[in-house]
Structure formats: structure tokens, C-alpha cells
Amino acid sequence: MKRLIWIFSFFSIIAILAFVFVSCAGNQAGGYSEEGMYPGEELPDDQVAGSSEEDEVLRLLGIVDEDEPPAEKPVTEQQDDQQVLRSEIGRLENEVTEKDQELANLRQELEQKEQTIQQKEQALATARSSSAPAYPMPTGSSFKSRYDEGLRLYNSRRYNEAIAVFDQLLATDSNNSLSDNCQYWKGECYYGMGNYEQAALEFQKVFAFLNSNKYDDAQLKLGLCYMQLNNYERAKMEFNKLLQEYPASEYAGRARSYLNGL
To answer: What top-level class would CATH report for the domain 143-261?
Structure first.
């Protein structure tokens, strides 16, 4: 098969060379060539036809003049392409502008919501700070009588009212001999309400009082708070601290019992 293709190509080239030779001979016999034409003269029809046939033969054989520049699009087609490109660019610019505007609107809405949240938080904090105590204390009563009233409210499980009483007592005299007890019973109130995190904070404040008789009580309750919060490692640490710092405490046995169960 390859040999047949080679033979066909060989005879095709021979035919082209013969055709070119005959054409050149015709040009010389006529006494002028395409390059030697006078200004205003036109190429004879037979030569135009011959050139076209020669180009067609070269095209069929796959022989193309590489120096020949590619055909350019007509001016009207170029203008149409440019117009389409401009239209597409304009459309994309409009989309970008719309997206920028949407983003600006979302940012503004987010800022407004953040401002609203801040205002509500400030209003809530103001309301909490200015709220009246749940259990107003009678005037002229002693610290001890009011303390006993707080304990009575605690034993009646009126925890919020008891907390208000103890808070008033601590605000009145934080150096009273019963102030550390007020702080301790605040922790017991929160523990009774099931708010173990706040209870732990209140029990921790007991250690800020000097020479309190509630240290070991508060230490035991710290361990119990962390047990209720399922923080058993912290609970073990608090019970061990009770045994180390208050080994003679009446709660030492309870602390060991809790440790054995953890």
C-alpha cells in the first residue's frame, strides 16, 4: 500500500512540474510575464485559469505555501465581534456592580443586628443592676435577726428570697462575724436550685473571709458541685484537698467515702 502511495505521489509531482514548465514556456513565447505587465494591463483569462488550476492541484496534494498569510475576516465581521465583546464586558461589569451592592446591604444589615443585640444586652444589664431585692428587709432589725430570717427562708426552700437577704447582709457589713456564713448559705441556695456552677463560685468565695468556720463545709460542697457537673477529676481534687488541709474535719469521712465511689 505504501508503495502505491509513493508511486502516485511521484507521478503527481512529475505532472505538476510538466504543467509548470509548459506554463513558463507559454509566458516566454508571449514576450511578457505577470511581473512584467504594463500598468493597467490585466492578466489573460487563460493564465488566471491556469493559476487557479495550479493552486487547486497543490491544495489537493496538501502542498500549501506557508508564506501566504491567512485570510483575514471582513471588516464587518470584525466589527460584529468587537460589538459582541463589548456587550459581554458591559454585562459582566453590571453583574459585579450588583453583587457589590448586595454585599454592602448584607454588611449594613449585620451591623444593625449587632447594634440591636448590644442595646438589648445593655438594657438587660441595667435592669438587673437596678432591680429591687426580692425580699426587702425590715428597718431597725439586727444583723443576727436578719441572718436567722435568711436561714428560715433557705429551710423553706425559698432560695431566691434567701439569697436576697444574704446579699443585703453582705452589702451592709462584709466584716461581720456572720458574713462568711451568709456567703456559705448563698452557695447552699444555688446548690438547692440545681445551679451547681454558680454554687461552686459562691462556695469558693468563702475562702476570702479570714478565720471562717465554714472552710471545710465549703470545701466538701465544692467536691459535691463538681460531682453533679460530672467533672469527676475536679471532684477528686477537691475531696483530697479537704483531707489534706482539714484532716480533723467532721466531713473527712464523707470525703473518703465519695473518693472510694469515684
So the answer is: mainly alpha
